[in-house]
Amino acid sequence: MSDQASRSVAMDDNEGEITLGILNAVEENSKLTQRSVAGDLGIALGLANAYLKRCVRKGLIKVQQVPSNRYAYYLTPQGFAEKSRLTSEYLTSSFQFFRRAKVQCTDMLQECERKGVLRIGLVGVSDLAEIVALSALDSKVELAGIVDSTVRIDRFAGNPVYGVVDRLGAVDALMVTTLKDPQGCYDKLRREHPAIAVLHVPLLRISDKEAAEQGSDAMSDPERRR
Fold first, then answer.
1. Contact yes or no for 20/205 (Cβ under 8 A)
2. Does 3-93 carry CATH code 3.40.50.2000?
């Protein structure tokens, strides 16, 4: 690959990551400011402004004026779809994925140990599920299995694969490991299994408005839901 082609690929990847960051920020806080977006993403204010305007032009974000001459930003259905697409693309193509996932999964499992969450089920057969399984070998946390109705295999990464959550038996928590639509998976688990903690690592970029409002971190508090 030529230097020019390499720069082009890097630029496309960077644009996709910034757009994803913009969409994620808008979903989490409709009353954000361009300055706060720039700070969160580590980009120049002018660049944040340009990307917000681009997302509005593409129909990914809608803007409404609110009192005090300020603006509120909202994701459109097209914006939600684009966020899911970019998330999947980013997770599966990033060369840093394994390194970041290994660190975050290890941290997550250590936090589980600290809180007494010692039996968890994974939801989604993926590279991330395999990384969690590897990390669990050095942890006191036991994996009850992996839930994924879209695959036709009995085992993955040394763990049984089931079609539904109920086949896992008693678990202290569920962990999102799908890379196809992690936000949708998370939302569905919260709706269908409200009594079970639902965990996720930061790299999945899952929006957890309820946890944010209650001052929780990326790991839903298992003790609050158990």
1. yes
2. no
